[in-house]
Amino acid sequence: MTSTKSKNAYNKSKSTRTGQNDNSDPSLKDVYSRVTAKIISDLEKGELTWRKPWNSAYMEGNIMRPLRWNGISYTGINTILLWATAAEKEYAQPHWMTFNQAIELKGSVRKGEKGAQIVYADSITKQEEDKNGETVTSKIPFLKTYTVFNASQIDGLPDHFYQLPEKQIEPANLRNETLDKFFAETKADIRQGTKAFYAQHVDYISMPPIESFEDPTLYYSTLAHEITHWSKHPQRLDRDFGRKAYCDQMYAKEELVAELGSCFLGADLGLEPLPEERHAAYIQSWLKVLNDDKRFIFSAASHAQKAVEYIHSLQPQII
Length: 319
Prior knowledge:
- The protein is of the alpha+beta class.
- The chain has helices spanning 9-12, 31-44, 76-89, 99-104, 177-184, 216-230, 249-269, 283-292, 296-313, and strands spanning 96-97, 108-109, 116-129, 135-150, 154-155, 190-192, 197-199, 204-207.
- 34% of the residues lie in helices and 14% in strands.
- Helix 7 crosses helix 8 (283-292).
């Protein structure tokens, strides 16, 4: 199988500083339920939590990944959590940091400001003897929660933390050379057709001609959605939720991954995701999935992140 490690530095680098660990929080064990409950509540109102930044007028054209204090992007579920918080609180600055990190940068969190909780998934290695007296090693997964603050809530930081992100790519013509090259580098078999879909059994993406879209950006955002599906092929990421029939719950899970993947990729490339009307029919199926499995939004975000990292890894490495 092709390596899923991204060649992009932001996907490979990790912060070397530790944040405030909120393991003392008695509700830590319910972190999955709390996050999922928030997303379910939004879905029941017809809102997609991960789309909120694009619906905020003050962030128009400036959508990007939320950033750590050191400029490294947040990934997976934390992207969704911080996007949603930024949209609700109207934070335009992309940087987030812990209380202690703000102090180290000579900044100070304003009195009364409330931080946002993010999560960190890890595992501990445990060794024990089995019934035959042999040592068996197992990994036990766990979650930590951390509280971070947006630069908008902090005074005294270096000036660059308060600079608004530049407006992202806006294709002026029907074809965008940069985006065409990005998708071409994946070597995906993209064919012109009358509908947009990915056919796994023959491994190709069908896309209507760009002229048939109201806006060229919609063409590329549609392609981002389909190429996230394309990443699931057994010879790539081998993502399989056990789908047996069209429109069953497993199909809904894969569609949620593609939805998140297109949002993550859209933020990286400066593309607004597909209009919400495209996904309105999926909301009920996503509600069922999330109600049945409180951890799936974490899994879906993780799969989407891996898909985007894989797609980025297919680009020529910049030395």
